[in-house]
Amino acid sequence: MSQSRCHKVELLETHYSTKADTQAKGEEEDDANDVSVNIDSGENYMEEFFAQVEEIRSNIDKISENVEEVKKKHSDILSAPQQDE
Q: Which residue numbers delimit the Syntaxin N-terminal domain (predicted)?
């Protein structure tokens, strides 16, 4: 986890624990004291990840096709009659 993201998570945890402590005491919080922290949901990361997965699957399919082609050519070469000189 990046340092800035860790820092954001720590701030968020601090905010929630402070809010919980205040509510447990029965005190009302002012809206001015509320702090909002936006945490990157990582959507971009997941989109990139799934794009890479799709690319890898495509490459695996191409490799499989090439392997089958090599097997066929190998079989054709081995079964072809050879002339001894």
A: 44-82
